[in-house]
Amino acid sequence: MHLRDLDVKAAAKGLARAAVTTVLLVAVTWRLDLAALARKASSLDARWMAAAFLVVFAAVVISAWKWGLILAWRRRPLPYRRLFRHYLVGLFFNNVLPTTVGGDAVRAWEASRDTGEVPEAVGSVITERLVAGAALGVTALLGLPFVGVTPRLLVLVLSFLAIDLALVAAFLVPRVAEGVATSVLPRRVSGVRATVSATVGVVRESVRAPRLFIRIVVLSVLFQLLVAAVNACLFQAMGVPVSLARCVVYTPMIFTVTMLPVSLSGLGVREAAYAYFFGQSGVAQADAIAASLLFFVIVGISSLPGAPLFALSRRRFLGAERASR
Fold first, then answer.
1. What is the pTM of this model?
2. pLDDT of residue 262
3. What are the C-alpha distances in Å from 173 to residues 11, 170, 178, 247, 309?
């Protein structure tokens, strides 16, 4: 397949996601009172909003730390400030730019320039994402004892736990593993069979290390608890009584659904999932969608430092490249 064919295919996917995003957003907001949503946004409790920003920051701190544990175990350690910087850059690409280049791919490529090893850098990012995916269902299960468990809710949580574990297990299938690695590898090396195989090998060796795996699972669950706490803060800011325990149960399932690559930055999919899951505990559709949009805005604002960091990195890289010629 030629480079031009890949560009056309990427553009087509981008347009399709934009169309799906528009349709979903219209569908979930069609009957909402947008003026009421605007009034609700203008009366948010500033203290709870500040708390939401602080919890997002704590979640990024945890994520960068657990990613660094994988690189350190692979004997490719990076200073924490570099890990944190790369994570912010990846977050910016994931949440602000409607780009076909995922934040994970950008984060992996930035780290590969530091480590000098493309398979190791990319493999560490995929490992962190895989284990985080498994932690989604585990976190929802941990929240169950603190809410009124109904048979329907139990089946729902167990179903999503099975889905999350199945997605991780799918990586054991060679074709699936190579496809995941290829999607994260930079285009100019993704066609090199040896690089793809080496990346898959890094991931499999990492998840088979018991001590490392347990530590990453624990930190991933902690990360998911913090994400749930962001939602709890947002509902409190709006004056909607939703407990942290409810957020712990529903948030991981929401973000399992949001992983479906059908819209830009999960817009539309996430709003529909918020409305459905939080509706299970009596939250009005308008309040659930407002919380979803607030979550998107807060994470987007929190990721904005990734833009100048990325630009500065590009400038230094290009300068060093010219100097070496």
1. 0.86
2. 67
3. 28, 6, 9, 33, 37
